[in-house]
Predict the 3D structure of the following.
Amino acid sequence: MPDEQKPEGSPAPSEGGGSEAQQAKPPAPATPKPVPPKPAAPPAPKPPAVMMATPWTAPLAEDLKARFGDAIKDTSTYVGQNFVVTTPEAAIPVMEYLKVEADFDYLVDVTAVDWPKRPERFDLVYILYSFARNERVRIKTYIKDGDKPKTAVGVHLTANWLEREVFDMFGIEFDGHPDLRRILMPDEWEGHPLRKDYSILKQDQRWVRENLAIESGQ
């Protein structure tokens, strides 16, 4: 049959067989990738746990109260560790009593804790051990900055070096100590590194420069 003529104005068919309108249709926009959620902020740090001590009522604690009266301010225990809080004047007599009467014959350590905003700025802590009892006890007292507690060298010879370390790190001077001088830091070092007002980045710039011939890296 002869080809039929299409009326003028009729669109020509496309090669793919689709209409012109379909060919002119713009492509669909790409679906945007989902934005990952921001990580949650870390939880605020918890405040340090408060030491929940309980009364220590063992016979030894009662003996100390009976012997020293009001000089014993507290007898408590915390996670199995017993401690006695005394007046500053009673610390050495209590230590001697524990050595002679209760076999606490080894002075393990002498240390301190700095509380700059407290009137009695320092906790002074003596840690005693009894080999016979396999037991520890701590004697704690509170002293002001500038106070000079009595040395324990007359009761325990090991107090010689232990008190020197407390002097070196905290600046606490012990009355009657036979050789009170620095034991960790150089003799000419200025300041006492474990005081809270001594910055962790602080260095004795002068000592470093004069003795090491360098500038401090802090």
